[in-house]
Amino acid sequence: MGQSKIPLYAYVDETGNTGHNLFDDAQPDFFTAALITKGNFDDSYSESALKLTASLGVDALHGKELGIGRIEKIADDFLGLLNKAQANFFISRVEKKYLLATKLYDSLFDSGENAGVAWHHYNLRPLRLLLAFKLALTIDEETARLFWQCILEPSEEKAYEMLPGICARLHGNLLQVPDHKSREVLGEGLEWARLNPKTIQIHTDRKLSRQAHFPNLVAFANLLDGLDHFAKQFKKRVARITHDQQAEFAKSLTAFHELFTTAAPDQIRWAGETFSLQKVVGSEFEVKADEESAGIQVTDVVLWLYSQFRKERELPTKCTAIVQYALRHGWESDFSFSGVDRVMQEKYGAIFNTPITVEQEVQARELLAKAEQNRLASMEQYKRDHLPPFMRQHALAAPATAVEAQVADEDAP
Questions:
Q1: pLDDT in tens, 36-72
Q2: Strands (E), 226-320
Q3: Are 335 and 225 in contact (CB under 8 A)?
Q4: How far apart are CA 6 and CA 59, in angstroms?
Q5: Is the separation of the CB atoms in 331 and 61 below 8 Å?
Q6: Separation CA 393–CA 306 (nearest Å)
Q7: What is the pLDDT of residues 271-288, one digit of tens each?
């Protein structure tokens, strides 16, 4: 078999799982990582991994149990194993507070459901994220807990009973937002949702859909996207994804994998963004106990060291070298306030920071006036038909704007 025909194998582990408790101060982040190798790592390198465990007198490699001292002792051989396997990594961080803030904005400010929100404030990604950041300033701990309870509530009646109070609490905290215009935009959207809660699709009766809110599933979706990107870059297919065994989400992870691998391959272009729902097509997915997979154990050690690095814990020289190897030979997905802010500045900084001309300002004001006219018309239409905007025939016929065109130009290859 030629080298180009050897498929990729991925071995996945995670840390920071707090289940339904999103508010554990001791674990503010959820991390997941994948060791990616050409060919089956477990078949080729289990014997090498066993030598490492034997040298330490343990049954398996677990970063937290070994601790920094014992990892430092085997670090040279561990790095040698990574180099021999030509190992690559994908590492994902999900900051739980950021996850909640974005869930809240997505739930309440979707302009297809909330007629009080203008189209561009939800569908143009830079504006959506900017407002989500500002909305986060209004979320106190009690409101966060109420919202999390609301989106996980099995009873539709109870979920909709909770929603107006959540909107009112957020509205009452709007003075935390530093600028008047953002307070106005957020306030109008919150007031519409408070008065018309049934237009907001806050409830689902499917357990899988509710579990999709959890950091585990968000991180797993990011992981599949990262593996798909890696495979396409190296023109290889992903043969199998082996995930560390854990009872609560095993069925959901399997269902998510099937959902993405069997999705239509079409590319979707919307508001300056292009994406495809199909990921790692043709791959298998399995769940294994870490004792049964050398690949998962290696991932466990790297992920634990990476989490210590992210927490700014001091690491000795050789442990630091392992983290540096993973960062040099891999990708990071940082789904956090700081990570997304960094990416936004890299991608859209020129738009945000470049002064506009007089002509551009005139054009922008005209477009914003038109957007406001459309928003007010949508609210009036709701009084007549009691249909959320996405259910109207013209809902998908949102006009292109100069802002959208500029974003599209920025995203063009």
A1: 999 999 999 999 999 999 999 999 999 999 999 999 9
A2: 238-244, 268-270, 273-275, 284-288
A3: no
A4: 30
A5: no
A6: 50
A7: 667 777 889 999 999 999
